[in-house]
Amino acid sequence: MGVSVPAAFAVLLIAMLVSFGMLYVSSENAYSMVHEATEDYNQMVLRTKTSELELTGYNYTVGVGFYDITFNITNQGSTLSPARWTYIFDGVVTTTSVVAPSREYLLPGEWTTVTVQNLQVDPTITYSLVVSTEVGCGLKIKWKWVGNTTNGSPQVVSSAWYCPVEG
Description:
This protein is α+β, with helices and mostly antiparallel strands. It has one helix at 5-49, and strands at residues 53-62, 66-75, 86-89, 92-93, 98-99, 111-120, 126-132, 138-147, 152-162. The longest helix has 45 residues, at 5-49. It starts with a helix and ends in a 5-residue tail after the last strand.
């Protein structure tokens, strides 16, 4: 009819052992996941600190009332993936006015080109382009047309590599 006290105690003891065993396994898994996340974060920080792009030159072609400018960008840091870059032209994410080769990797010391097309020949406009890389850092280039609308050339005003600061 009833369960004896030693049998009930044995059932409770077995249930407690199973629950403590499950608790240990879940805490071990949680610790392992936190450790892996810490390693991933450290790798990301290292990649951010060792990445750098540099503007090493530019050239241009002039049409009637417009021009195209091509920037030579050299990788001075760790390996990057230009296929995963984002281009922000005058504050707008764009894929239409910026042309770049879809290289899978850009090794340290290698260079690539980025062309901005159909720019107005207007000395009052200062253009900007941000090449945002997959590590969160970016190369910002500012330039303007120097001269008048019939005779002149584009000139780079500034270029800078920057990474967001951790808070």
